[in-house]
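User: Structure please.
Assistant: Input sequence and predicted structure:
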Amino acid sequence: MVRKGPKAVIVGAGNVGATTAYTLLISGLLTELVIIDINRGRAQGEVLDLAHGIPLCPPAEIKLGEYPDCAGADIVIIAAGLNQKPGETRLDLLEKNKGVFRSIVPEVVRYAPDAILLVVTNPVDPLTLAAIELSGFPPERVIGSGTVLDTSRLRYLLSQHTGVDPRDIHTFVLGEHGDSELAAWSLTRIAGVSLQTYCEQCGQCEQSLTEIINEKFDREVRRAAYTIIDLKGATYYAVALAIRRIVEAILRDEHSILTVSSLLTGEYGIDGVCLSIPAIVGARGIERMLEVPLCGEEVELLRVSAEAVKE
């Protein structure tokens, strides 16, 4: 029998939900994991497949559940919704997936009134706002996966160009998780120095690193999901790792700074919309939003992103 400890529920057993379950199971963060899906056969298949690997993982229990099984959950991860099709933007999905949320969120609230909601379904920013409205939870307890993955993509891209370990590259992708997101170049640091200083010290590039990466940012970060969807039909590995990172920060009360999507209430002159800016994430969810010093152009781009999501 597994000792009781942190419990998570995943609503949605599609590619993202199932891969997230696998990632969390091998992480050792949980002692109980429940999977819920309207397609119970699919969910049962995923649970059985994962359960057979439990003897090879840190001790945990995994089971097929229904909404009453949300009781006692520390985190409920909502990964249910319709998939993004080739050529379809995240915003095209909004109305369809808001309908899905109307059937999910009230049931989660009914049985897990003290849980933290982690929204993964796209378009994640407006759906995070929808989850806040549907749940009635304090905004700090409703978190979108936001641009945690996009920031990881940018760090990987910079690492490929510089040869520096991506863990020593510090940067943020802000705004919408989607077409209007922006890189915070003014805050980007490689081994503690700015991009401009790094380029000057390196002396290998006639063109600044910012200009080089800007040329690839749209294709390899902002539109990376579209490329992967065109090639293999869906994205799920890296986003599952991003979800694991958020769950880890919450369950371990790390007070980590992550670019999760959350409700802005005046930061950068933006109000009433969920976007990603750096936030301190811990056991209570979002402990504090950080209005980090951006350059004037970046603030304007962030406001443009906010308007895009509002529209």
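The longest helix spans residues 94-111.
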